[in-house]
């Protein structure tokens, strides 16, 4: 699925989760572009076995690592995150019962917006701090160079669109 398919769902996610300024939009777009491999996928390439038994992610049952591997345009990972997202958006556990739905629209975009809001990423985006935004999403600095390049591209695009 190409980037164009995500435009309206991403716009809806930004509105719903309070991602409103040009700088917030640029950081959000840069991060989702990186996390989704340039909008090529909304499912983590790795199997998820590395998350098996990770109690910090809520993966307490056998098979949880694979079942709740990263999905969405910002890779929602772990039973606890799927459960919290599902409860917040739907008031039930449908995303726990059917984790694959998080990789499909509109949930792929909504999960990214939900993650952004619940992790208070607007505050870091407002500081224009790609390193801190990346660490909060990734837990480290994986892909920082790509995220930084994508941020520069997003800023240029948003500035150009703002001139219309």
Automatic annotation (TrEMBL):
Give the molecular function GO annotations. chitinase activity
* Superkingdom of this protein's organism: Bacteria
SUPFAM superfamilies recorded for this chain?
A: Lysozyme-like (SSF53955)
Q: Which GO terms describe its biological process?
A: cell wall macromolecule catabolic process; chitin catabolic process
Q: Which Pfam families match?
A: Glyco_hydro_19 (PF00182)
Show the Gene3D superfamilies listed in the entry.
Answer: 1.10.530.10
Q: Where is the Glycoside hydrolase family 19 catalytic domain?
A: 26-122
InterPro entries, per the entry: Cell_Wall_Dynamics_Protein, Glyco_hydro_19_cat, Lysozyme-like_dom_sf
Task: Return the protein name.
Answer: Glycoside hydrolase family 19 catalytic domain-containing protein
Q: Which organism is it from?
A: Pseudoxanthomonas winnipegensis
Recite the lineage of the species: Bacteria, Pseudomonadati, Pseudomonadota, Gammaproteobacteria, Lysobacterales
């Amino acid at each position: 699925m190409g980037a164009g398919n995500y435009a309206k769902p991403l716009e809806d996610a930004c509105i719903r989760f309070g991602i409103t300024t040009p700088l917030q939009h640029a950081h959000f777009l840069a991060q989702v572009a990186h996390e989704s491999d340039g909008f090529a996928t909304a499912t983590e390439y790795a199997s998820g076995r590395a998350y098996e038994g990770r109690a910090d992610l809520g993966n307490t049952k056998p098979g949880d690592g694979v079942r709740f591997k990263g999905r969405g345009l910002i890779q929602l990972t772990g039973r606890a995150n799927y459960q919290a997202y599902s409860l917040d958006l739907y008031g039930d556990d449908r995303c726990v019962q059917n984790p694959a739905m998080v990789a499909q629209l509109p949930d792929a975009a909504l999960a990214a917006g939900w993650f952004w809001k619940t992790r208070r990423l607007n505050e870091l985006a407002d500081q224009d701090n790609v390193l801190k935004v990346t660490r909060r999403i990734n837990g480290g600095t994986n892909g920082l160079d790509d995220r930084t390049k994508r941020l520069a591209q997003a800023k240029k695009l948003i500035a150009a669109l703002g001139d219309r």
